[in-house]
Amino acid sequence: MDPTRISTHVGVKHCSLCQGDTEYYCYGCRQDLCIQCKKLHVVDLSSKHHTVTSYAEKMKYPPKQVKSSQSQDPKQVISAQYQDPEHELCVMPFTEHRLHEFQPPVWLSPQEHSEIQRRLYSDMIYHLRGETIYYRSVLLEGLRHDRETGHNAVTIRGQSKAVKRGQGLKDLIDDVLAGDLEDRCIIQKTRMTRHMTKLLRYYHRYEQLSETMETRPIKFLRIMTKKHSLRKDDMKPIIKMLVNLMKEIRLVPSGIPRRAGVEDLLTLLSSPVLQKSPLVTGVKHCHHISCVTPDLVWVSDVDNIILTDTATGKKLNILEDSLEADSGIHTVNCEGKLIYINEEFNIIKLCNDMKTTTTLIKHTDTTWKPVCVYCSPSSGDLLVGMWRYDTHTFISTGKVMRYDNTGKHKQTIPHNDNTPHTLYERPWYLTENNNGDVLVSDLNRCAVVVTSGEGVHRFSYTGPPSGSRLGLQGICTDVMSHILVCDCNYPPTVQMLDRDGQFLSYVLTRQTPGMDYIHVPQGLSYDVTTHAIWIGSNNNNTMSVCRYIKRHLQLTDVKEHHSDFDEEQG
Fold it and tell me: pTM of this prediction?
């Protein structure tokens, strides 16, 4: 065969973002990535939870078809779930402790066992490069800043201190050297010379005596062991100098690790961005949302609570025994398990099999009805908003009950239920801030009522500076301790406050691109993984993901190459 006739044309894949050479592939957004784009992709908040693998890995371990969870053979279902790189198991980070505890099913083949272990270790790698490396890079950037600015700071402040301390030391030395030091040295030298001469004389004398008679040179030994020191008057200046120098010594604690605060890791976008607006099958409205992962959320209307996969649009589970209310009737605990209020006003926890339930709090006091619930991510406590209505006085009253994770009562806000009070009238949604504050969206009072963790009233937010009255619905807080609330009054908005109730900005308004999908925002949930908020509509079954927080992206070898891309992503 003529070698000149062999075609040399080959297909080269280019990066989907910058036309560089493809080295990685993202299963989450179906994009080819170069090495530089991959570095940014795995730390960006909107894509850090995606599964990214090298192209060689992708070709060696191609994605396998996931069996339906309705299959009759549980072995096939579990095996398919563990082998599929797009399954949720591969997204969740695994610690070394969890890896040691995990035992693959016994019916899997050795090749399948090896595949599962490979996937689990890959998840650790994804977590390290998406979270740990970014965190360390922020610390490194802070060290670089300190190194650049530290020299000048030390020079400016240190010179004056060095001059001051140096002058003090010089004064002490001058005090020691002042006076008749030279004369005292001569006198001391003369005394030492005389003493040494006397020792030599005694030595020769006793040496001669030892040759003629048995003699014990007691006197000689006494002379040798006699202490000869400076006089007390000569020691005073030296002691004074040492004492003054020791006074200048300061103990500086060391070994304290440098830590990056939230403000070092995250910052607010100049303008929020709506990323997607998926439809939720099985509900008519999105009254309340509880986020489990960036793709899995529980959504409720007045009829059902639905677990939906927003990436595929599939309905994964449905609960039909929930309380028929458009309030915050469900939450998710630290383990990702759903906790909700059922139609009998009991607080129920859904188990891992998505079928078995456990009653955490049995409803016994018929005068009070639970209408909203929230699980504290820091303590695991359950906060339950209670409401009662007196048909004789037509007075609506509310309170918040705190329980531990086993359902044991710990606290009541306000403390005294027997006296009339107006702290709450009708709690409809509630949440907890990072500082322990309890925040209640009060439907009747049209206000956000905030108390400290001890139950002391801190403030009530009734609206922005424009003075418009709130039509409050959903409420949540973020990692930066901001308070976000839905206002359903016209024009509907999502507002951001600081932890002390001061209005900061509008996260969403009617002018926000994509806001047309949500005519009236009501449900609100914060995703701790991507730092985005889920907003549910009161008019239809549409949710929207709004991103208003971003990372600083301090990776110096990436940010210059992708400055335009970073601005485009918000």
Answer: 0.67
The residue written with tokens 């894949």 in the block is 13
Ranges 56-70, 276-290, 466-480, 512-526: which has the least confidence: 56-70
Domain ranges in the chain are: 179-247, 278-537
Residue 124 token pair:
């650790």
Q: Which of 323, 402, 328, 326 is nearest to 361 (CA)?
A: 402
CATH of segment(s) 278-537: 2.120.10.30
The rounded distance, in Å, linking the Cα atoms of 558 and 568 is 15
Query: pLDDT grade, residue 32 (50/70/90)?
Result: confident
DSSP 238: H
Integer angstrom CA distances of residue 396 from 72, 384, 426? 52, 17, 7
Closest CA to 475 of 490, 495, 492: 495
Q: Which H/E stretch holds residue 247?
A: helix 232-247
Residue 424's pLDDT band (boundaries 50, 70, 90)?
very high
**For the CA atoms of 140, 145, 146, 151, what is the dihedral angle to 10 degrees?**
140
Task: Please say whether the beta carbons of 169 and 161 come within 8 A.
Answer: no
End-to-end CA distance of the chain: 56
* 303, amino acid identity: D
Question: Alpha carbon of 536 to those of 40, 288, 354, 395, 540: distances in Å?
Answer: 30, 7, 23, 31, 9
- Strand bridging mode 457-461 / 472-477: unpaired
Q: Please tell me the distance from the alpha carbon of residue 21 to that of residue 160, in angstroms, as a whole number.
A: 56
Pairing mode, if any, of strands 330-332 and 472-477?
Answer: unpaired
Rg (CA), the chain: 37
Number of H helices, E strands in the chain: 13, 27
CA proximity to 461, closest of 485, 482, 427: 485
Please compute, for residue 228, the number of CA atoms within 13 A of its CA located in the half-sphere on the CB side.
12
Q: What is the dihedral of CA 33, 35, 39, 42, to 10 degrees?
A: 40
Of the candidates 531, 529, 544, 568, the one whose C-alpha atom is nearest the C-alpha of residue 40 is 568
Beta-carbon contacts of 124 under 8 Å, excluding residues fewer than 6 positions away, are: 93, 94, 95, 96, 99
**DSSP 3-state assignment of 352?**
coil
Name which of 421, 488, 409 is nearest 451 in CA terms. 421
Tell me the pLDDT tens digit for each residue of 451-465.
Answer: 999 999 999 999 888
The stretches of 94-180 forming alpha helices (DSSP H) are 96-101, 110-127, 133-177
Contacts 24+ apart (CB under 8 A), 60-68: 61/85, 61/115, 61/118, 63/27
| C-alpha separations of 496 from 502, 509, 532, 533 in Å | 9, 12, 13, 12
